[in-house]
Amino acid sequence: NPLVLVAYPYLVKTFVNAYATEGSEQLGQRIAGILQKKLFKSKDYPKGDGVQSSLLETQLEKSLRLSSRSRQKVVSILAQNSSFWILKILHGNFSRKELPRVPDMLQSLLDDYFNNKKSRLKSGFIKEIFRRYPWTGHRLFSFLLEKCTSTKSEYRMTEALALIESILKTWVSGKTHVDEDAPGGLQFLRENLLPLCSLMQQLLSKPMSKGSRRSDVRRFFISALQAIARSKLGEAFCKALRPDAYAACESYLGDKFRPLLKFDDGVSEKNVHREEKKSC
């Protein structure tokens, strides 16, 4: 029943206030139980003409901010679950073209995460959104690539790489949904192939200082090449890479490089090296 959406914000507000007031935790626990059992874990959700995207987007914005600002873990977790629930309602009632504010809100949240030390956002939360609703990750792919290339912090770069990797993995696994303005999800990768190549060239020329982060970069490379192969963009990828970057990439991944690109889609080693010579 869409009327649930009328009661929902009051329940959340009471829950947050309960944990802000000493001695009211029991009330907060009762409200959390109601929200989890009756709303978040229910297979049913509000549908029909009574569902307004603008009101839901306002509530989503509040939940996203609460998830990244609350110092209390229990409040942050409920805010995350609230966000998943609202996204489910939006996804079930409206087309993606009717929800331009959703990726904008996520971008604002991530921008705050990368630039503000006060942000308590958990990257795993965003990865789960990308997994459930791949189109949101597709819309933020370019933004995340830019964050990777512009940040001076290795930690923030590896965090951004992990988010990009989660988008690519969803695409490679075949779990992604067909995007209305990007058939098969392919368009987001094709449009960002050059920035992706630039990022890979940057990572090859300036290796990470810590071994664990170098392992993260290697996993990212493997996911990127798997996505490129699945999209049959291997030839375009090799043309976009500088000859020295191509050689560095092949040396970096060793025997895994060419099998990952799966040069069985009409791209032969001879053709690749011919393009390298042209580039020179």
UniProtKB/TrEMBL annotation:
One of its GO terms (molecular function) is DNA binding. The keyword Nucleus applies. It comes from the Eukaryota. InterPro entries: DNA_pol_V/MYBBP1A. Keywords: Nucleus. The keyword Heme does not apply. It is found in: Nucleus. GO terms for biological process: regulation of DNA-templated transcription. One of its GO terms (cellular component) is nucleolus. This is Uncharacterized protein. It comes from Nymphaea colorata (pocket water lily).
